[in-house]
Inverse folding.
């Protein structure tokens, strides 16, 4: 009997491993535009024993990649209902609401994700800052970005996010300063050089822009 | 001179045809308090206003506006005076004042003039207030008598479609940016047709300033001096006081620059906007020599890089409009002129063409249905089926009033100059520096182009419960000795090997201590082969953005290189390169495949 139980456990484990591989496949296929095949992979994964809430979550991801926002929302909501303490579907549902310009709902979800995020608090906070920026709530965005900088001052991405938000507001000189900070902490930041080149152009600092653009090309080609 | 006026004020011709001499200013109504001075100003203003209406003279409107503004001191609440002042101000592009005065006139007397709302709409269009202007244009003909409505119909339709362009372009990506040039060039008189000379580092332009004009005493039929060619030297991003181009090129007729060669030793210019001449200059300080005729019946010219083609503006007398033509070089001469095609030449004016380097792009000005108001700078690209439909360069350079005479600086692909009548200048046409935005636009950072939460947390679904799991420690593979490492390097048919025991934390480029052993062995290989040169390359899977992966793989390759150099390997012996996801060894569709793709490789470049 014990032997039979052991064999069963091994078979189940093998099945789940295959199911997880199918999940990987599904996202890769969706990124290539093969949405039907991606959905099929998730269905196979369901048959092979993947947890329902994981399947719902990835259905949501595939529909998101397809641009079918409503279906993505529906599946993320189902995943949330099955696992209310999991920050991942809240995060992605927030991004989906952003796509639909429903900022209030996005904020609700991203705040929930923040409360549940644990080790990923920095990442979710940065994303919330970007969402505030996109909705024009610049002061709140800066509060989040400042908190991120306090947590990880040598992470260039926060400075780049702030710079992009300032470019959106046509504050080119201030944006240039932020990109410069990003470069100071990461001298090989492709995004920072490209974005600073654009900010310098808007300021008519053509020599400076050319320098940055040359560096961008150098980094891209390496 | 006559042709010059027609060309410069074409859009105003359409508008001035509508400017009417009614309503009259009645002395008994205007002079609440007797003032001989005020009435004199009104009479002088009336004289020039009449000339402006009848003969389309911008200079006449300039004078009228000046006298009417003085008359306001006696009575600033008299609707007919405010209307005439407002119309004069629209003609000279003093639109902010025009809007205020026309608005006041309409408020004081609802039917002060049947076209008051039209002129109000024009002033708003000039100021890029496209939504409000469109609304006013839609309403302005409803209260006009039918004959007046007929007269205005075509122009109003054109302006409504121009306003639609303006509304659309307000949300479009900027294709160009412009700012006024610094220094002493721009004044309250028109400055037009800027071309840059590389030889003497000066900006040449057509100016009507009274000081320095060869024909300064002569007042043209538009009551402004004739245009002369001036030159202002560039210094520290600014321009010095302009000097007259000299009596060889400036006569008592009107002259404007048209084209400057790359070396700066030859200038082409238009005289009376009917003929193109050229002149040579041997050195920086020498004078321009006596000009020779190049082409007649043309008002502007531009050459391709190799001079095999020339484009120019011709006034089509039959259709009463300006079009762009081209000629191809046949030996020492140019062949017959041909139209640039119906996609470019419309029922409106297309003028002042300028080749971009590479000769597959032409910039030009048009006041037709593609503009947002007046002349706008447009672009056409040469494709398999000929020159493309014209494309407006957008609101970074174009406004609801005129932008024209755009020329790239010789040898430049992105920097040029144009003239514009926009608000904020020193008066009438001013010269602006232009930057064409042909670089990639802002790209977004590595964070968060990771689209999904699970990408921040790769352990997410592996655990099956959404909770973080301890990262499994990767078991080191067979520990390569120096000899085995060298054997693999030299014998591998692909010429490169994977460094099996080089580890990094997720999304970081700091080497983990368990990597040191393998890299120490690699450093020892260099002791045995002092001339060895290798490439260390970083590779990733395809999850996440390509830019982020390239950056990360480069940083990791750099980390390996830095470690080797710190262990005695020469800087010139190790090249570091990040390939990101571009060179996978395995499929990215499975976790194992992706793990195999995340690697550092070494390849011998020289033994």
């Amino acid at each position: 009997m014990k032997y039979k139980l052991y064999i069963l456990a091994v078979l189940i484990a093998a099945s789940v491993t295959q199911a997880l591989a199918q999940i990987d496949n599904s996202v890769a296929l969706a990124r290539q535009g093969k949405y039907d095949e991606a959905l099929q992979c998730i269905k196979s994964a369901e048959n092979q024993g993947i947890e329902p809430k994981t399947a719902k979550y990835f259905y949501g991801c595939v529909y998101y990649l397809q641009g079918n926002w409503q279906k993505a929302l529906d599946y993320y909501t189902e995943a949330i209902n099955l696992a209310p303490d999991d920050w991942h579907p809240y995060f992605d549902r927030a991004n989906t609401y952003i796509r639909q310009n429903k900022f209030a709902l996005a904020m609700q979800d991203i705040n929930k994700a923040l409360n549940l995020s644990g080790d990923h608090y920095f990442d979710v906070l940065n994303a919330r800052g970007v969402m505030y920026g996109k909705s024009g709530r610049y002061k709140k965005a800066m509060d989040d970005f400042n908190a991120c900088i306090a947590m990880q001052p040598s992470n260039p991405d926060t400075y780049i996010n702030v710079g992009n938000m300032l470019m959106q507001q046509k504050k080119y000189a201030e944006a240039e300063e932020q990109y410069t900070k990003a470069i100071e902490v990461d001298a090989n930041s492709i995004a920072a050089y490209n974005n600073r080149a654009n900010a310098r152009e808007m300021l008519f600092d053509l020599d400076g822009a050319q320098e940055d653009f040359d560096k961008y090309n150098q980094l891209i080609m390496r | 001179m006559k042709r010059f006026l027609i060309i410069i004020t074409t859009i105003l011709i359409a508008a001035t045809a509508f400017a009417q001499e009614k309503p009259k200013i009645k002395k008994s109504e205007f002079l609440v308090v007797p003032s001989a001075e005020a009435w004199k100003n009104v009479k002088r203003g009336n004289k020039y206003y009449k000339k402006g209406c009848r003969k389309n003279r911008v200079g006449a409107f300039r004078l009228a506006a000046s006298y009417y503004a003085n008359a306001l001191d006696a009575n600033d609440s008299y609707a007919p005076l405010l209307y005439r002042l407002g119309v004069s101000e629209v003609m000279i592009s003093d639109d902010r004042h025009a809007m205020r005065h026309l608005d006041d006139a309409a408020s004081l007397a609802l039917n002060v003039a049947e076209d008051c709302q039209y002129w109000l709409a024009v002033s708003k269009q000039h100021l890029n207030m496209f939504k409000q202007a469109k609304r006013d244009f839609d309403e302005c003909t409803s209260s006009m008598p039918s004959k007046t409505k007929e007269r205005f119909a075509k122009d109003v339709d054109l302006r409504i479609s121009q306003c639609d362009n303006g509304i659309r372009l307000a949300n479009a990506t900027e294709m160009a940016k412009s700012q006024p040039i610094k220094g002493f060039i721009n004044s309250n008189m028109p400055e037009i047709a800027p071309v840059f000379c590389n030889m003497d580092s000066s900006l040449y332009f057509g100016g009507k300033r009274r000081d320095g004009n060869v024909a300064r005493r002569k007042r043209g039929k538009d009551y402004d001096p004739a245009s002369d060619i001036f030159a202002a030297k560039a210094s520290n991003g600014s321009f010095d006081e302009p000097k007259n181009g000299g009596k060889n090129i400036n006569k008592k007729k009107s002259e404007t620059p048209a084209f400057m060669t790359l070396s700066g030793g030859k200038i082409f210019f238009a005289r009376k906007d009917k003929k193109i001449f050229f002149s040579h200059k041997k050195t920086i300080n020498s004078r321009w020599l006596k000009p020779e005729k190049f082409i007649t019946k043309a008002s502007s010219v531009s050459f391709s890089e190799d001079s095999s083609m020339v484009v120019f503006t011709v006034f089509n007398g039959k259709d009463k409009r300006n079009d762009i033509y081209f000629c191809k070089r046949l030996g020492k001469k140019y062949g017959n002129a041909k139209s640039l095609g119906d996609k470019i030449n419309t029922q409106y004016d297309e003028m002042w063409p300028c080749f971009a380097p590479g000769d597959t792009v032409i910039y030009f000005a048009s006041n037709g249905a593609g503009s947002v108001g007046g002349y706008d700078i447009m672009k056409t690209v040469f494709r398999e089926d000929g020159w493309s439909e014209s494309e407006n360069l957008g609101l970074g350079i174009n406004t609801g009033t005129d932008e024209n005479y755009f020329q790239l600086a010789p040898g430049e692909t992105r920097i040029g100059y144009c003239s514009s009548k926009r608000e904020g200048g020193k008066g009438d046409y001013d010269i602006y520096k232009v930057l064409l935005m042909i670089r990639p636009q802002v790209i977004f950072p590595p964070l968060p182009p990771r689209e999904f939460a699970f990408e921040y947390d790769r352990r997410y679904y592996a655990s099956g419960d959404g909770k973080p799991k301890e990262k499994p420690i990767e078991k080191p593979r067979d520990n390569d000795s120096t000899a085995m490492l060298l054997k693999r390097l030299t014998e591998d048919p692909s010429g490169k090997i994977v460094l099996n025991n080089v580890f990094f934390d997720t999304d970081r480029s700091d080497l983990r201590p368990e990597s040191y052993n393998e890299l120490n062995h690699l450093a020892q290989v260099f002791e045995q082969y002092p001339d060895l040169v290798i490439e260390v390359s970083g590779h990733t899977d395809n999850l996440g953005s390509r830019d982020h992966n390239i950056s990360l793989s480069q940083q990791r390759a750099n980390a390996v290189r830095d470690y080797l150099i710190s262990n005695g390997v020469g800087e010139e012996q190790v090249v570091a390169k990040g390939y990101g996801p571009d060179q996978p060894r395995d499929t990215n569709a499975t976790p194992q495949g992706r793990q195999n793709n995340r690697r550092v490789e070494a390849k011998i470049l020289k033994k």
Observations:
- The domain at 2-169 of chain B is CATH 1.25.40.10 (Serine Threonine Protein Phosphatase 5, Tetratricopeptide repeat).
- The longest strand of chain B covers residues 321-330.
- The interface with chain A takes residues 177, 179, 415, 433, 435, 437, 439-448, 451-454, 456-457, 460-462, 464-466, 468, 542, 547, 550-551, 554-555, 558, 576-578, 588-591, 594 of chain B (CB under 8 Å).
